[in-house]
Each structure stands twice: as structure tokens, then as C-alpha cells.
Amino acid sequence: MLLERWREGDRQAGGVLVSRYAPAVRSYFRSRVSGPDSEDLVQESLSRLTRAIHGFQARSSFRTYVMSIAHNTLNDHLRRGYRRICFESFDDSAGEPAIAEQCLLERERHALALACVRSLSPDHRELVERFYWQDTSARELGREKGIPAGTIRRRLFESRASLKKFYSEATPETLRRVAELEIEQIRSFVRSGAV
């Protein structure tokens, strides 16, 4: 098996595996990031894969492992860019409150979306994350969980309905709590000296 050979130090086997999964990683980033960042993120993900190869424990397919590394790379990229844009916007917007307000509104929308996903049961949350963010097919999820792909699709349908309901019922109180959490995260970030 290529994976075992790679783990034992066979770089050629590693190269074959990386070549096999690189198109899926490239497609993942092209659908989510524009410009030259896309290819940079592909390279970063594949580099992370080579460093993390011994961390694969076969609880899921190797493809799922590769795509989870890509997903985490994307999240790190978005966090870095988001922080840079928001904090640069705050610095540059002393005379332009509309820019700072826009940044806060974006953070609020992001926080509400996360709150919606977190409102799902752990099983449904995992399905949503794996299906939509890691591009794992319903068939593959079903195979991993030992249930039919149709059951996975039904659960995804139920999850989407729950997300719509949560979002539509978001009260001003819910929005206030989400905003307070986001503000506290910003304060913690600023206090950490990372800015």
C-alpha cells in the first residue's frame, strides 16, 4: 500500500499519493478562493500533508484526511485575512465609521452563521461540515457510518431545515449574545498582542 510505504520513508510512494490527491485539493481551493492565493493554499495544504502523514489513523478515508487538511488550511487563511482586513480597516477608518461598521456587520453575520451550525446536534453538525466544507460525498459518509447514502441525504436535508429555522428565528437577543461573544473575542485578540 502506498500510504504504508510513504510512512516508512518511501518518498516516491508519497509523491504518487500527493499527485493523486492534488487535483481534488486544487479544485477545493479554486471553488473557494480566487487569484494566486488558490495555488498557494494548494501548496501549503500538500506541504502540511507531508508533515502530518504519520497523524493519519484510518478512522476515515485517506481522501477525507487530505480534504480536512485542506479545509483547515483554508480556515487559517481566512482567519489571517479576516483579521488583517478588519484590524487594518479599524486603523484606517478613524474618519470613516462606515468601514468599521461594515467590518463589524461582517463579523456579526459570520458569528450568526457559526451559531446556526453549532445549534445542530453533533451528528448533524459533523455531516454538514464534512459534506459542505470538506466535500465528502453522501456515499462516502454513508460508507464510513455504515448507513445508506439516502439516509445521509435525508439528514442533510433535515440539517438545512434546522439551519433555516434557527436563522429565521434569530431574535435581537440572540444577535446581541452573538455580537457580545464576537466583541469579547476581538478584545482577547487585541489583549494577546497579536495585533
Automatic annotation (TrEMBL):
Signal peptide: none annotated. It comes from the Bacteria. Keywords: DNA-binding, Sigma factor, Transcription, Transcription regulation. GO terms for biological process: DNA-templated transcription initiation. It holds the Pfam family Sigma70_r2. InterPro entries: RNA_pol_sigma-70-like, RNA_pol_sigma-70_dom, RNA_pol_sigma70_r2, RNA_pol_sigma70_r4, RNA_pol_sigma_r2, RNA_pol_sigma_r3/r4-like, WH-like_DNA-bd_sf. GO terms for molecular function: DNA binding; sigma factor activity. The keyword Repeat does not apply. Belongs to the sigma-70 factor family. ECF subfamily. Coiled coil: none annotated. Residues 17-83, 118-165 form the RNA polymerase sigma-70 region domain. This is ECF RNA polymerase sigma-E factor. The keyword RNA-binding does not apply.
